[in-house]
Q: What sequence folds into this?
């Protein structure tokens, strides 16, 4: 499958792994830039492969949704040094390809306390095979502008079901200015099922996915390894880049998904209302000791669409 890349003043190759341009760091998908005999690597483009790819995964014994894709769902992860946030949102999109209405997965990386941020817009569709990526728009900076990758037919990045020990691979080829052919391969494996502690809470039976990437060009071979943790019926809760930067969940509207169905909706309001006035229950979402009107307001404010 070919990935067509459009980038002002350059030709470049889209790959999903961690690289470093030397002027910033973040967690976004990777674009390798080639000019003269340089391979520039950009951490402003680091991104969680699993966040792009996961949909309705399953454990060995029970079907689970490891990436709830309801419009309005949001996840915020923070680096351990509290210097960076990665924000994932599921949004409506006007994009349509072959009569398929595409969903927008938007990922924003920001350095806290500054105006420095980058974003990536991923236009995807979900079906029985898994999650399919049709188009990607990566915001870089004032120097590099935006990069667009169009994949058609769409790439199947993640199958619909996975269990411990499963592996899958993606290979893409492209042409790069002044470099020539380049081949990107991502080999992924579910290597463990773990409990994960985050500032937002403890999540049990999470899939740990190892993401190994290999990029081959006339300039040589680049390899990287990263890890993504996904909680059942919740989504991304931890990421470790190939630079050993660890991000953990600090906030999500799905923290108010009290019924565990991957949506924040009327069922969750009913759950809280049925426990109104009680103490020490899960329905006390603001942890003030009593289930009251404040808990109902919080759940309502975090509704998925």
A:
């Amino acid at each position: 499958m070919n990935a067509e890349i459009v980038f002002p003043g350059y030709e470049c190759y889209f790959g999903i792994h961690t690289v470093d341009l030397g002027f910033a760091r973040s967690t976004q998908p990777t674009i390798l830039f080639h000019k003269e005999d340089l391979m520039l690597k950009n951490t402003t483009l680091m991104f969680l492969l699993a966040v792009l790819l996961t949909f309705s995964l399953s454990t060995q014994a029970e079907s689970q949704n490891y990436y709830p894709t309801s419009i309005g769902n949001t996840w915020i992860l923070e680096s351990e040094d509290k210097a960076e946030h990665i924000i994932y949102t599921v949004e409506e999109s006007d994009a349509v390809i072959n009569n398929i209405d595409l969903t927008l997965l938007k990922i924003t990386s920001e350095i806290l306390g500054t105006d420095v941020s980058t974003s990536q817009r991923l236009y995807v569709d979900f079906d029985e095979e898994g999650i399919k990526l049709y188009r990607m728009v990566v915001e870089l900076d004032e120097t590099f502008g935006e990069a667009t990758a169009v994949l058609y037919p769409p790439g199947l990045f993640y199958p619909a079901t996975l269990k411990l020990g499963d592996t899958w691979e993606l290979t893409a080829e492209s042409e790069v200015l002044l470099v020539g052919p380049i081949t990107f391969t991502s080999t992924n494996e579910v290597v463990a099922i773990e409990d994960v502690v985050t500032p937002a809470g403890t999540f049990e039976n999470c899939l740990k996915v190892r993401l190994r990437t290999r990029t081959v060009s006339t300039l040589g071979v680049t390899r990287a390894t990263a890890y993504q943790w996904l909680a059942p019926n919740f989504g991304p809760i931890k990421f470790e880049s190939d630079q050993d930067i660890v991000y953990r969940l600090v906030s999500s509207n799905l923290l108010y998904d009290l019924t565990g169905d991957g949506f924040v909706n009327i069922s969750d309001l009913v759950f809280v209302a049925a426990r109104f006035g009680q103490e020490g229950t899960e329905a006390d979402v603001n942890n003030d000791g009593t289930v009251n009107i404040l808990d109902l307001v919080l759940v309502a404010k975090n509704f998925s669409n």
Observations:
- The chain has two domains: 4-252, 266-301.
- Helices lie at 49-53, 266-273, 293-301.
- Residues 68 and 262 are 5 Å apart (CA to CA).
- The longest strand covers residues 180-198.
